[in-house]
Design the sequence.
């Protein structure tokens, strides 16, 4: 059963130096509040697993929390770059950064395998691309019925998964915001999990099982209203574009990023 | 489209992006299912729905199935993309080569890249499995290269047999729509050849922006200019600047 | 795009002698009306694929439509037997019946593989049981990362799938009754598909993608109000128990079943 | 439970099914997740929730996750059962053997069976993956056999090492609750041995209904009789006759 705990305690307890940390969430519900706690707690040597690495990833890398990224997309505003990640990759600042990159289909299959207790997933993917030669977690498997060769990807079983959701009930059952993304799979694949929620209610209201995470499958729930800001506000797209542009300015410059980081770390 | 008599000398009162978007929208038909990357590809699909293809179903990378709701990433990739049931995939890229392979990973060497790009997203499997692929890109010499630095999404690989040897079900790139014209694979070689230029664009201009010896179709067409109705509809959709990067 | 057609025409067009026919549906929404059309049209040599074979399967076998069952459960009321299936298996009446049996997990994995365009599915299943030695569609596959041996099942891609749903819109988009069962997978795995619906409406109403089948993925939609009766009425459990008991009486006796069959076939 | 002094001579004012259901319910704890076959196993889980385990989450074969909604069969089997995250699986069967293997497929030879049973359902994977298995069955000689005619769901196979050799994560049968008593695997051999009898049942009666040489625990217990509260609660749940067949 999930315990309902304060956010700082939850992150302090569940995210440990050196962990493989999956942080997932559709563009509207990115767990920024939890990620900022990771930065405040100065966690280091993390492997950050995230299908679409965006501003949140740029922040964790720039803050020196992550030494490795496992991802299938890493893009900033528009065609822009994520400057902190570029700086880490290109100049080892603030620390060198390793990458392991996949396609979205491959990452999804890895999470599904992890959530399903299987050691690998099978897909029609990667064929003819240069991705497998740089990614040890892609191999091939032969169909025992047809002889056909298909891509195999190793299961993802992160040490901890962090996602943000609309609400939880007082027993720690969580209503996800819909079936988008891989939030459910990340939580079920991980050894420990933290779900931050906008509100804690008596009754989750009407839901289908597809969008519910039962309490027994979660380690901790933390009440973090606005915990996905700046993502997830009303009119997500405009708001997101604005915040992306604002982040581009901060991220471009080490000194300016340093001031942002100080702001985050100052209580 | 009209047959080319002589190269037009002026482009009309529309932007290059508008020409690409209109040309891409025209390739989509009602009743098809398409998956379109964010930005210009998505806008082309939306435009087609408003113009001539009201029953075009647009699936997007976040799992949205038209207006019918959203599925998770596992279902999107397994049941919808990988199954081969999507008619058209609209992709873009930082580089494309003579065989229609796309690169959205790195420029230069993988370990020491000149430019690190965003990566694969869903492009490898869209390129593998959709019945056909339409690529939209700005036509620039640095992007239209003989061989991409990194194959993120397979076109025809190194030649005509590669897709079949890999057991791919999708047909691969059927059309590359740029701000200068349209390229299509030569049926005999799978090399991309110029089959149309947009109004006001000359063949030499296209060749100058193409990093391989570009074959030109004997039946080279000139794209019909965007109609006022197409432009007005497109402009009613557009907010902000388009994003090109394949996702 | 799905066409909206009368039920008889749809079944006549889509279900052909010798076909592999998946008929799925949670206990509340079993496509009886479509199955009875199959009986009326005297389709034969069908392979009936159905995870939980119940009264509907008993009827199709007793009517001589199916010569083969692919299933993972075949049970009648309570601990009771399905007498028509027992009679076909034991005495070849009205025709011999072959069976291919799986576990639910295996059948679900086979449908998922079929819907996903993969030739096989992988699961932790069948291990230590006697099922694989009687079922050619279960083999093993070795994980290319860990070396572990797992069960592999061949994909199911039926010629046609039949399910019943709550409603469709006029474009042929279908709202499933929820994510239970394998209705969605059966339709997506099949070469042709027929969805019978309680009602055809202008607007499907609020739905998540998880429970919607878009028109382009369906061959035909037929308006069949009450098409799941006797399953699916209000108070499904009582009603189902009653109809199961009533069916037991009919099914026990060849002559009585014959009269039932005549009734079905008489317009 | 109380230690056995002498075999009780009368069963109380409850039925054998009620005794089994109450005994099974007592094995379930609040906060656990269990999956229970329809009929008596499901009723035991419901009874536990009403009595001492309000936070017992019951998952059922149709994909219902407690009161939280329903998932599809693929998700149920992959994410919930196969992943190994369910604490207790409650199963039944037409036959069980000395190693706790269950048969719900055929009595007799597979090709020419004496009795064709319903088949596997979800039992093979529940038996493989749940942290522990509780079996509920009527204790009859034809059902408690030395070796099942068909292994539908694995207990301990042919001995103590089989589950580990097959890479199974679940612990296998922890307890077999019958209308006569309780059997548990001997820690040294994994053979089912009698560890408790229900009130009014003698050891010889159990042996007479068991098709192998039944070992009896040195610490044989007598099950506490159902309390009036347990019986009243159970009776308020029951409509219709219980179904036993494992599903």
Sequence:
């Amino acid at each position: 059963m999930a315990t309902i705990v304060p956010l700082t305690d939850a992150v302090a307890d569940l995210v440990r130096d050196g962990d493989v940390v999956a942080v997932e969430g559709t563009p509207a519900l990115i767990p920024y509040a939890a990620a900022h706690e990771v930065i405040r707690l100065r966690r280091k040597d993390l492997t950050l697993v995230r299908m679409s690495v965006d501003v949140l990833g740029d922040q964790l890398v720039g803050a020196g929390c992550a030494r490795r990224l496992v991802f299938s997309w890493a893009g900033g505003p528009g065609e822009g770059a994520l400057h902190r990640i570029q700086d880490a990759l290109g100049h080892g600042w603030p620390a060198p950064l390793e990458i392991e990159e996949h396609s979205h289909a491959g990452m999804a299959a890895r999470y599904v395998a992890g959530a399903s207790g299987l050691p690998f997933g099978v897909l029609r993917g990667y064929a003819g691309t240069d991705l497998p030669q740089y990614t040890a977690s892609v191999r091939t498997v032969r169909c025992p019925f047809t002889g056909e060769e298909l891509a195999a990807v190793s299961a993802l079983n992160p040490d901890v998964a962090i996602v943000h959701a609309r609400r939880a009930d007082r027993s720690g059952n969580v209503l996800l915001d819909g079936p988008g993304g891989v939030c459910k799979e990340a939580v079920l694949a991980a050894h420990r999990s933290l779900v931050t929620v906008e509100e804690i209610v008596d009754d989750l209201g009407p839901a289908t099982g597809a969008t519910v995470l039962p309490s027994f499958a979660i380690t901790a729930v933390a009440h973090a209203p606005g915990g996905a800001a700046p993502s997830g506000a009303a009119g997500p797209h405009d708001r997101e574009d604005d915040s992306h542009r604002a982040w581009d300015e901060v991220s471009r410059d080490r000194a300016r990023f340093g001031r942002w980081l100080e702001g985050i770390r100052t209580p | 489209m009209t047959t080319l008599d002589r190269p037009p000398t002026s482009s009309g009162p529309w932007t290059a992006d508008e020409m690409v978007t209109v040309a891409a929208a025209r390739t989509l038909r009602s009743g098809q299912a398409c998956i379109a990357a964010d930005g210009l590809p998505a806008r082309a699909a939306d435009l087609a729905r408003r113009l001539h293809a009201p029953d075009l179903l647009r699936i997007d990378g976040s799992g949205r199935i038209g207006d019918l709701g959203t599925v998770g990433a596992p279902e999107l990739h397994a049941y919808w993309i990988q199954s081969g049931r999507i008619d058209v995939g609209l992709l873009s890229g930082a580089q494309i080569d003579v065989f229609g392979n796309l690169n959205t990973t790195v420029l230069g060497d993988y370990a020491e890249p000149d430019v690190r790009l965003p990566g694969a997203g869903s492009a490898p499997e869209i390129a593998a499995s959709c019945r056909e692929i339409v690529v939209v890109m700005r036509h620039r010499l640095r992007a239209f290269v003989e061989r991409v630095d990194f194959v993120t999404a397979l076109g025809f690989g190194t030649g005509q047999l590669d897709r079949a040897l890999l057991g791919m079900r999708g047909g691969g790139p059927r059309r590359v729509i740029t701000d200068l014209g349209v390229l299509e694979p030569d049926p005999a070689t799978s090399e991309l050849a110029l089959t149309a230029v947009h109004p006001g664009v000359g063949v030499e201009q296209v060749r100058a922006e193409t990093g391989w010896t570009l074959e030109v179709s004997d039946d080279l067409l000139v794209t019909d200019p965007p109609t006022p109705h197409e432009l007005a509809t497109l402009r009613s959709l557009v907010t902000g600047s388009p994003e090109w990067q394949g996702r």
Remarks:
- Residues 30 and 54 of chain D are 6 Å apart (CA to CA).
- Chain D touches chain C through 46 residues (CB under 8 Å).
- Residues 1-10, 241-247 of chain D have pLDDT under 50 and may be disordered.
